[in-house]
Specification:
The protein is of the alpha/beta class. The protein has helices at residues 35-43, 65-73, 105-111; strands at residues 5-8, 27-32, 48-51, 79-83, 101-103. The chain contains three helices and five strands. The protein is globular.
């Protein structure tokens, strides 16, 4: 079995990924919480970046909200995916963001993939 991608969490600041020789369809994705972390993910050659948390969650006292999310998302030309606190009640608000998609582990656990 061959890997076709790798996820780099926000706390990983290593730049060893930027000069790797990778297979053609190998995808690097990462997560970030602020603009400095977004810039690190760019240097790590991430194609897509999970930006979180967009909405209030039990794990995080602070969150970005729509405005801060968009202000951070415009700082990069990478594809941005909204993550954190997404539920049925705030799902329509995602359409107001520069996000190309969403990720919500707890919602998927609760409702399943539909």
């Amino acid at each position: 079995m061959l890997l076709d991608g790798v996820y780099i969490p926000a706390f990983n600041k290593s730049l060893i990924y930027k000069n790797l020789s990778l297979p053609h369809k190998f995808k690097i994705i990462g997560s970030a919480h602020n603009i400095p972390e977004i810039k690190i993910k760019e240097k790590q050659n991430c194609e897509e970046i999970f930006l979180s948390p967009i909405f209030k969650t039990d794990k995080h006292k602070s969150y970005l909200n729509i405005l801060k999310f968009n202000l951070q998302a415009i700082e990069t030309n990478k594809k941005i995916i909204a993550l954190g606190g997404i539920n049925f009640n705030n799902l329509k608000k995602i359409k107001l963001t520069k996000s190309i998609g969403i990720a919500s582990i707890s919602w998927i656990k609760k409702n399943g993939l539909k």
